[in-house]
Design goal:
about 425 residues, BirA Bifunctional Protein, domain 2, 5-stranded mixed beta sheet, elongated, binds adenosine-5'-triphosphate, binds magnesium ion
Length: about 425
């Protein structure tokens, strides 16, 4: 137990971390190019936030939350998703009174008690964005376009966009009656959770992962055939703007999404490469959530994207993430005086934004060179006690093997010019 990470969690080691850093960098750049600002919220929140914000009839709240009491007896939950905390922050800091729309992005760990498998973990990570304050269909499409541009920037093909409209509280009330009628005789064949959802939120039954339930709902009535005029017009405009943005899409009337407060547009990006956990990104409009959590009525739209599933998609598409370069400089020393000089020089180099390292294990010269190779250093500086006295070092290009003596006073300038800084 002591030396094994908890089930469903993963360490990110040096062999992988550059991939994460690259994805984070590209995601930030794309978000910034769309005018989004980063927001960071705590890893834990009051449990009620998710009960209200994600919805009591969702899988997340019913089965998957990491909930515990803190020492003062408060019920605390590790964030299972990113939207509710951002909405809480929006309300707490009255951000909605600033110029609208507000556009946020986040990079966050999430926690869900699920059965771990490929692309499904208990601690996983999400990229996400949220836009508050505009009900225009163009904003729904901007959100999808950001995902689309991000995938483009990563060179991934083979990710398709599926969209749906799940209506608003007006049209859904009528639809729910039709859906309940349809489900009534099938109820005894549905799983227990679905049975409990029948009264409160029958639409959620469409999202059940249970195969038996899926088979029962094959011919269920679909929401897009029962949209009110306003929702219908919104959906038509979303499609029009998707065409304007030159983004291909399919309408999938079965998309329900995991949050109870989604309204109108719901969408998913699906990778055909990663098997059963194929949803790499899910999002939609949630015009009711800010008000539900105690803020003023504020339309909103956003998405959440699993980073682990994105990494799987990239891997299965054979897309290589560029490796970071090795160290600029490794200093090999011979003798005690040289070792001290190297220590001083390290500081100088690093202050000049030249990455540098030296030996700290008292290695032989040969072993120091070997270690320099391991660190993929571009140049090695060799200093012996003699060199210290003369004020010079020997500079070796590790690719070409070419070696040259350089006066210490000129060293930084020489390195900067060689490294193109
Ligand atoms: P699924 O249907 O696969 O359970 P979901 O509907 O629960 O997904 P969302 O709540 O919409 O997922 O989360 C957004 C994204 O986060 C998903 O599309 C997926 O990429 C990722 N994700 C969700 N749960 C996990 C998990 N347990 N492990 C890894 N990634 C996950
Ligand atoms: Mg899920």
């Amino acid at each position: 137990m002591l030396t094994k990470a908890p089930k469903g969690t993963k360490d990110v080691l040096a062999t992988e971390v550059y991939k994460w850093q690259y994805l984070e960098k590209v995601f930030r750049e794309v978000c910034e190019s769309f005018g989004y600002k980063e927001i960071r919220t705590p890893v834990f929140e009051h449990t009620e936030l998710f009960e209200r914000g994600v919805g009591e009839t969702t899988d997340v709240v019913q089965k998957e939350m990491y909930t515990f009491e803190d020492k003062a007896g408060r019920s605390i939950t590790l964030k299972p998703e990113g939207t509710a905390p951002v909405v809480r922050a929006l309300i707490e800091h009255k951000l909605y009174s600033g110029p609208l729309p507000l556009k946020f992005f986040y990079i966050t760990p999430c926690y869900r008690y699920e059965r771990p498998q490929a692309g499904r973990l208990r601690e996983f990570h999400q990229f996400g964005i949220e836009v508050f304050g505009s009900d225009q269909p163009a904003v729904d499409v901007e959100v999808m376009a950001l995902v689309y541009n991000f995938y483009k920037a990563l060179n991934v093909d083979g990710i398709g966009l599926n969209i749906n409209s799940i209506g608003c509280s007006k049209c859904r009330t009528e639809y729910n009656i039709k859906l309940r009628n349809f489900l009534e005789e099938k109820l005894h064949n549905l799983c227990e959770t679905c049975q409990s959802r029948y009264e409160k939120n029958p639409m959620r039954i469409l999202d059940c992962k249970n195969e038996k339930c899926q088979a029962e709902i094959l011919d269920a009535p679909i929401m897009i055939n029962h949209l009110c005029d306003e929702c219908n017009e919104h959906f038509e405009k979303v499609k029009e703007y998707l065409e304007l943005a030159d983004i291909k899409y399919n309408v999938d009337p079965k998309i329900v999404r995991g949050l109870d407060y989604y309204t109108k547009t719901a969408f998913e990006f699906i990778s055909n490469e990663i098997g059963s956990q194929s949803t790499v990104c899910g999002g939609g409009r949630y015009d009711g959530l800010v008000e539900e959590l105690g803020g003023p009525s504020t339309p909103a739209v956003g998405f959440g994207m699993g980073i682990e599933r994105l990494l799987l998609t990239l891997e299965n598409n054979g897309i290589e993430i560029p490796k970071e370069k090795g160290l600029d400089i490794f200093i090999v020393t011979i003798g005690e005086k040289a070792d001290k000089e190297a220590f001083r020089l390290l500081n100088d180099l690093r202050k000049n934004e030249i990455s540098a390292d030296k030996d700290y294990l008292g290695r032989s010269i040969k072993a120091q060179f070997k270690y320099s190779d391991k660190l993929e250093a571009q140049y090695t500086i060799v200093i012996g006690d003699d060199e210290v006295d003369k004020g010079v070092v020997s500079l070796k290009n590790m690719h070409s093997g070419e070696q040259q003596e350089v006066a210490l006073v000129n060293l930084i300038d020489e390195l900067k010019s060689r490294l193109g800084r």
